[in-house]
């Protein structure tokens, strides 16, 4: 099995985009299988920086890039991202980009509802990206969604629009908003339809053919396991399953397709948005990590919260997602620290825990148990081989492997594509 599934092992922004771009040179197809344009994946190639939200990160290398049925697709966001990347010199054609004809659409009223609900939620705010992700997934499961294939049959939208309007107009009335402008929506869809339809395909057919031919498929997860709607820090999560298992259902390939599951983890921890974060550092070290790591959200520009590496959480992420190996990113951000702490367990009401409890209040009250190890003063930035790493950095990586019970397959030492240390080739396993 030559496939690789990349997923985030923390709260997102672990550096998945960089690693997927790096691995894409060895892949025949790159496939997104969940999430939407809430994702923000940054790729640095020479002096060019590419920021992708909806498009698979393989697109920059010209690798066939597929958006699977598990993604929620905002047609207008798609168009502007395609235009932005085309202006940067990336070739995006129906030969390089294919979109599942069964993808549910994110529509303007989904965005409205996301923002209206957040604004009305007081202390209960999730801190979403306000891009309509949650409301679009709700409509998919509620069997009200308009999908990509519907764009080729706009004259037959009546019953779906009846269902959508019945649901959303009741909600909108509650928020003091006018009902959905049906004719306006139909006109907007008619205007964007051809743009989306040029890429629309039954992608499961292409992917199954790729599998039969033994082509290498690289699945690109968005968000991270701690934002998974089942396994994450509920309710402070996104509205999709972000674990590797979703690669099958979100594309139309069987569960054996996932192959090597590569969990991406930062050498420390960040989170953007609300929710529990046991190892968060609200001090000078947290500020330092944020500055050195340039921890500002790609999508919303929000400052990311920073803290020490939490081995309990990453161990749990690896277990629930069946991670085969880890890519440890942003090691260089830790350069120059005297001491580095790793969370190895929690204390809750006098007891020691080796896992993250399920209840939000318990998650907010656990106290991390730390082990400290010596830092390193040398620079690891740009290292491309194990031999270039200081002994203390190697010791740190080895300790993480022990604690998370999972081997490190790659180490990343800068935003640049080639500044990557290969320990074990995920495609060779
Ligand atoms: P993603 O959402 O998982 O793809 O991650 P993001 O792109 O949102 O955030 C990761 C950020 O860290 C981006 O700005 C990357 O360019 C940058 N990055 C990735 N790997 C490294 C690394 O090893 N070192 C440093 N310093 N930056 C990195
Ligand atoms: P990438 O793929 C980090 C967070 C939001 C919020 C929660 C729910 O770049 O790692 P949503 O808009 O999805 O309903 O927001 O999830 N979130 C992310 N955080 N990286 C992401 O994606 C994220 N996508 C969503 O900040 O807390
Ligand atoms: Mg990101």
Automatic annotation (TrEMBL):
What SMART domains does the database record attribute to this sequence? Adenylsucc_synt (SM00788)
Domain of life of the organism in this record? Bacteria
What biological-process GO terms show up in the record? 'de novo' AMP biosynthetic process; IMP metabolic process
Task: State the reactions this protein catalyses.
Answer: IMP + L-aspartate + GTP = N(6)-(1,2-dicarboxyethyl)-AMP + GDP + phosphate + 2 H(+)
Report residues binding GTP. Answer: 12-18, 40-42, 304, 330-332, 412-414
The UniProt record lists the EC number as 6.3.4.4
Residue positions annotated to bind Mg(2+) are 13, 40
Task: Tell me the cofactor note.
Answer: Binds 1 Mg(2+) ion per subunit.
- Catalytic class of the enzyme: ligase
Residues reported to bind IMP: 13-16, 38-41, 129, 143, 223, 238, 302
Q: Which cofactor does it need?
A: Mg(2+)
Gene Ontology terms for molecular function: adenylosuccinate synthase activity; GTP binding; magnesium ion binding
Q: Which residues form the active site?
A: 13, 41, 140
Write out the entry's keywords from A to Z.
Answer: Cytoplasm, GTP-binding, Ligase, Magnesium, Metal-binding, Nucleotide-binding, Purine biosynthesis
Binding-site residues for substrate, renumbered to this chain: 298-304
User: What does UniProt give as GO cellular component?
Assistant: cytoplasm
Q: SUPFAM superfamilies from the entry? A: P-loop containing nucleoside triphosphate hydrolases
Pathway, according to UniProt?
Answer: Purine metabolism; AMP biosynthesis via de novo pathway; AMP from IMP: step 1/2
Q: Where in the cell is it found?
A: Cytoplasm
Record function comment: Plays an important role in the de novo pathway of purine nucleotide biosynthesis. Catalyzes the first committed step in the biosynthesis of AMP from IMP.
Q: Name the protein family.
A: Belongs to the adenylosuccinate synthetase family.
Under NCBIfam families, the record lists:
PRK01117.1, purA
**How does the record describe its quaternary structure?**
Homodimer.
Matching entries from PANTHER family are given as: ADENYLOSUCCINATE SYNTHETASE
Name used for this protein in its record: Adenylosuccinate synthetase
Organism this protein belongs to: Sphingomonas parva
């Amino acid at each position: 099995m030559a496939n690789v599934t990349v997923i985030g092992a923390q709260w997102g922004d672990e550096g998945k985009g960089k690693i997927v771009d790096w691995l894409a040179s060895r892949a025949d197809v790159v496939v997104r299988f969940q999430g939407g344009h809430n994702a923000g994946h940054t790729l640095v190639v020479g002096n060019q920086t590419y920021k992708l939200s909806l498009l698979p990160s393989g697109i920059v290398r010209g690798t066939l890039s597929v958006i699977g049925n598990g993604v929620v697709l905002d047609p207008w966001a798609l168009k502007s991202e395609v235009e932005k990347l085309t202006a940067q010199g990336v070739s995006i054609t129906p030969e390089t980009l294919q979109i599942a004809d069964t993808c549910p659409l994110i529509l303007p009223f989904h965005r409205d509802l996301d923002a209206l609900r957040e604004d009305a939620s007081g202390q209960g705010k999730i801190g979403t990206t306000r891009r309509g992700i949650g409301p679009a997934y709700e409509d998919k499961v509620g069997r009200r969604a308009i999908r990509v294939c519907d764009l080729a049959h706009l004259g037959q939208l009546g019953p779906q629009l009846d269902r959508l309007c019945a649901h959303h107009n009741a909600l909108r009335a509650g928020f003091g908003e006018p009902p959905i402008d049906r004719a306006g929506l139909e006109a907007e869809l008619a205007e964007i339809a051809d743009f989306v339809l040029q890429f629309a395909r039954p992608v499961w057919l292409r992917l199954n053919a790729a599998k039969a031919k033994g082509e290498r498929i690289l699945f690109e997860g968005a968000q991270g396991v701690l934002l998974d709607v089942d396994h994450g820090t509920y309710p402070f999560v996104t509205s999709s399953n972000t674990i590797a298992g979703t690669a099958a259902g979100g594309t139309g390939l069987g569960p054996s397709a996932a192959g090597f599951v590569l969990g991406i983890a930062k050498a420390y921890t960040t989170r953007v948005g609300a929710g529990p974060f046991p190892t968060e550092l609200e001090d000078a070290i947290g500020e330092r990590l944020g500055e050195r790591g340039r921890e500002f959200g790609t999508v919303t520009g929000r400052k990311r919260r920073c803290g020490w590496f939490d081995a309990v959480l990453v161990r749990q992420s690896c277990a629930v997602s069946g991670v085969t190996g880890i890519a440890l990113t942003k090691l260089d951000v830790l350069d120059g620290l005297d001491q580095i702490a790793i969370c190895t367990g929690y204390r809750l009401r006098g007891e020691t825990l080796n896992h993250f409890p399920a209840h939000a209040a318990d998650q907010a009250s656990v106290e991390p148990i730390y082990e400290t190890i010596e830092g390193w003063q040398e620079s690891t930035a740009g290292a491309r081989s194990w031999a270039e790493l200081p002994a203390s950095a190697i010791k740190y990586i080895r300790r993480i492997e022990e604690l998370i019970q999972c081997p490190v397959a790659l180490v990343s030492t800068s935003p640049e594509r080639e500044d990557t240390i290969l320990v074990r080739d995920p495609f060779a396993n």
